[in-house]
Write a structure and sequence with these properties.
416 residues, 2 domains, two-stranded antiparallel sheet, 16 helices, 2 strands, 70% helix, globular
Length: 416
């Protein structure tokens, strides 16, 4: 008795899978279905000879119709925007970007070049590769004026460069949103302290938790709390923040998107390395103001300038699990949230109260201050400005998100 029911349910499940697969094939390649139907009796017969007994015909019909609705347009025959059809050119660009990123992290980042000999100053490979990329982009952009990756070399001067078009809110409403976001950010720090106390209590109870894993879990949970509360604030204080294109734009990626991502990443590495190089050059100048500031920064203890991310990169005992858990926030969820917050909301709201160039400067300044690393303030500001420029020129927030992710992953794998 029970064996017959099992066989019956297996047949039903098999017919559901057949109907789903056939619907996917029909949706993506209707010409294939037409060719098969013209050469066989499949169009006039059910999917299974015993489908009338073991599966009602409307079950498979509903599956096929739901798949068709999501993949194919209902009127003009074009594919729906709910599904991302990927072309070979896009796949090739994505694969090329991944390979270029891996080669850059493996070979270019740790390399250096001394143009004046072994005893002269060395220039990192990132500066050379990024400088060549930037120079080629400027030369290419000077010859072409159409939209694309070449326009990344242009400056932010026009007020209509912001891809999103959210309606302006009252200053009091926007100020209240800023205050709520600040309170949520501070609350995450207090939650971090509470999690630290809780993990210490667990270690007292002989729970096997290492110091590195405890810190990584503490940072991850407090970060997720900040992302969750900040997302709730933005969703409730704005009109359809995450479901509308008025605040920020995320478009379907194509081959230009992946080219923009790898170009933006190479230029980001150049900006960061060049910023550190310029800092060293300015410190060598005999200017009283710069000398006093440099001496003040050097006099700070390592614990005062070492950020939480620096501690996550080097956990106690070289704990691999702690490093993996600690890298989830900075390498994946952090870039997504920060780009949505700074480039998606703050930049848009600032542009309603001031010129776009000033709004870009202010959003980049807030981005640099949020990392609370005085030694890296200059190049963090430059990277924030560069990522805003990437967003302007591509009109797709996926580009700065991906570049931000790649930069943070590179920092974890090959820390400077």
């Amino acid at each position: 008795m029970h064996g017959g029911r099992r066989r019956q349910w297996r047949r039903k499940l098999g017919m559901l899978l057949v109907a789903a697969c056939w619907g996917i094939i029909d949706a993506f390649s209707p010409q294939f279905i037409t060719r098969v139907n013209s050469r066989s009796r499949l169009a006039s017969m059910p999917l299974h000879p015993r489908s009338q007994t073991y599966m009602r015909p409307w079950v498979g019909h509903r599956i096929v119709q739901s798949i068709r609705t999501k993949i194919r347009a209902s009127s003009d025959g074009k594919r729906s925007s709910a599904v991302f059809p990927v072309s070979l050119k896009t796949l090739g660009a994505a694969l090329g970007a991944i390979i270029a990123f891996a080669l850059h992290v493996k070979f270019v980042s740790p390399s250096s070049f001394s143009p004046l000999g072994p005893k002269g100053p060395s220039v990192s490979g990132e500066v050379i590769v990024g400088g060549i990329t930037l120079l080629g982009l400027v030369l290419y952009g000077s010859r072409r004026s159409d939209k694309g990756v070449a326009n990344l070399a242009l400056s932010v001067t026009d007020e209509d460069k912001l891809p999103s078009t959210a309606t302006s809110q009252s200053k009091s409403h926007t100020t209240e949103t800023y205050i709520l976001l600040g309170m949520a950010y501070l609350s995450s720090s207090y939650l971090s302290q509470f999690i630290d106390i809780l993990l210490c209590a667990l270690s007292i109870l002989d729970v096997p938790i290492t110091i590195g894993f405890s810190r990584a879990l503490q940072v991850l949970l407090s970060h997720l709390f900040w992302v969750f509360t900040g997302s709730l604030i933005l969703q409730n204080r704005t009109k359809n923040f995450f479901s509308s294109k008025d605040w920020f734009r995320i478009e379907r990626p194509n081959h230009i998107t992946f080219v923009s991502i790898i170009v933006g990443y190479l230029i980001t590495c150049f900006v960061s390395s060049f910023g550190l190089l310029m800092g060293t050059f300015l410190s060598s100048l005999n200017l009283p103001i710069l000398r006093n500031f440099y001496d003040m920064m050097q006099s700070l203890p390592e614990s005062a300038t070492e950020t939480v991310v620096d501690k996550l990169k080097r956990p106690e005992g070289d704990d691999l699990i702690a490093r993996v858990v600690g890298g989830i926030g900075p390498c994946f969820t952090g870039p997504i949230w920060e780009e949505i917050l700074y480039r998606g909301y703050l930049l848009q709201s600032f542009s309603h109260m001031m010129p776009l160039s000033t709004a870009t400067d202010l959003a980049s300044l807030v981005f640099a201050l949020n990392h609370m690393n005085p030694r890296a303030f200059a190049h963090l500001y430059l990277m924030g400005y560069l990522w805003s420029l990437l967003y302007f020129r591509t009109g797709n927030l996926i580009v700065p998100i991906a570049v931000h992710m790649m930069w943070n992953i590179r920092t974890f794998v090959a820390p400077v």
